[in-house]
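#lab-general

N.A. 3:47 PM
ok so I finally got the sequence cleaned up, no stray characters, all 224 residues accounted for. can someone with queue access submit it? mine expired

B.Y. 3:52 PM
send it over

N.A. 3:53 PM
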Amino acid sequence: MAPPAAEGSENLTETDAVAAAEAHAALAEQRARDARVRAAELRRQADGDAQPGAPASPRTGAGRSGRQRLVAAALAAAVTCGLLGVGSALAWKHHVAQTKRDEVATAAAVARQSVTDLMSLNFINAEEDVARILDNATGTFKSDFQGQQYLLVKNLIRAKSITKVDITGVAVQSATADTAEVMVAVTSRAANISNPHNPAKRFRVAVELAKDQGRLKLSKVTFV
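B.Y. 4:20 PM
back already:
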C-alpha cells in the first residue's frame, strides 16, 4: 500500500507519524507473508500435478505445461507484490525518521540561538539586543516581555551591564514542525558597574517554541 499521508506528513504529530509508519510497515510485512504462503501453495499444486511414473498423454502434458506457466507467473506476481510492499514500507519509515531528525535539529538550533540572544546583553547595544529578543518571541513570552522591554533597556544602560553566555548543552524533549520543548544548559558571566567581576553562574532553561510567521520562536521560558 502506498502511504496515502506522505504528502502531508509534516502536519503529523510525532506519535501519529510513528504509529502510521509502524502500521504501514506491518501491513506490508503481512502482505509479504501472504505472498510467501501463496507461493508455497502454488508450488505444492504444481508438484501434485506431476505424479512420478504416471503416463502423460500429449493433451495432459500440454495442460500440465500450461498450468506450470500460470503457476510461475502467479508466483512471480506474488513475490513482486510482497517486495513492493516491503520497499514501500521501508521508504515510508525512512521518510518519517528523516522528518523527525530534521525537526529535532531545527528545534535544537532555534533554542540554542534564542537562549543566547535572551541572555547575552550589552548596555552599549541595549535597544538592539532587546529588539532582537522581541522579534524572536511569540505567545505568552512575547506578551510578558513587551511590558518590560523599556525598563530592561533603562536598567542595562544605568548599570552598564554586560552579560555573556556559553551554551553547554541542549536536549530536545519533543519536536514537531510547529512546536518544540527544549532544555538548555547555560553558563552565564555578568559584569556591571558595581560588580565588574561576578563569578560565573550556571542555569538550566526550559523553553517552549511555537511557529509564528513561518518560523519557530520562543513562546515560553522557565529557569529551572
